[in-house]
Prior knowledge:
The protein is an alpha+beta fold. It folds into 3 domains: 2-60, Structural Genomics Hypothetical 15.5 Kd Protein In mrcA-pckA Intergenic Region, Chain A (Roll); 79-160, 2-Layer Sandwich (Pseudouridine synthase); 164-299, 2-Layer Sandwich (Pseudouridine synthase), CATH 3.30.2350.10. Helices cover 18% and strands 26% of the residues. It contains 6 helices and 15 strands. Strands 5, 6, 7, 8, 9, 12, 13, 14 and 15 form a 9-stranded mixed β-sheet that branches. A 4-stranded antiparallel β-sheet has the order 1-4-2-3. It is elongated. The N and C termini lie far apart (65 Å).
Amino acid sequence: MNCRAAQPDAGRRLDLFLQRRFPEYSRSRLQSWIKAGRVLVNGRPERASHLLREADEIQVEPAALAPLAATAEDIPLTVLYEDDDVVAIDKPAGMVVHAGAGVRSGTLVNALLARFGSLSTEAGDLRPGIVHRLDRYTSGVLLVAKTDAAHRGLAEQFASRSIRKVYLAMAHGAVKEDRGRIEKPISRDPNRRIRMTARLARGRAAWSEYRVLRRFDGFTLLEVLIGTGRTHQIRVHLSSIGHPVVGDRLYGAPAEAPGHPALGRYFLHAASIRFAQPRTGASIEISAPLPAELEQWMQGL
């Protein structure tokens, strides 16, 4: 495949130029070709970050897509919604979304490959189909892209914050206001790298809005709407106002609530998500019911 850089392409990265010119291929796939020397600029191999000049001649020698690094495993899945482009899964608490940090099997990706086979390659070999994530001990609705085009469409919606994500969280203590907004930047905790923090002035912008659904003695059930998708966002934000999520010991919740059984997970559930179908633009809203263990724990209050 041969092409030439035009005047508007001057100063553009090589990988971004190729992504625009050949949208049928994922950026990670194009970058792998560049790294392998299969892309030449004026007859010479260049890096993905190489900045083009007007009239540069680009030659691309495609290669077959490497097999997925993740393997299929026959693990039960609850599918909430499916079309030709998107799947919505009800992720159970305890399931890791994709391999990493010592986890190599039993992940949502392993289960997805067994169920659907072919998924988007945009996120790389270990994360086929994965557009966003939920923490290991958070349950609820999670979107998966079947095709690269669908992945790019969903990723754009997440980036523009047009996707509406609503969570249910049981917080310790009596949240004073019936409604509130927490707007604090989130960054890596410099003292404990496994944690995030909202106590520093720096970090990535983040906001969460909450509404009290029900009050109990010593606990408050909240509906939380997030406008950003930062790591551990709801857990960090609620902890920062003195109301950690039940079961979340990393962010200050006690190991056990006196008089109540240990939960064994966070009381945090991705209850619904609303998005535009990436090909048709139709508005779709998917809901996931509250898991039985959370419902039972709440009834004990």
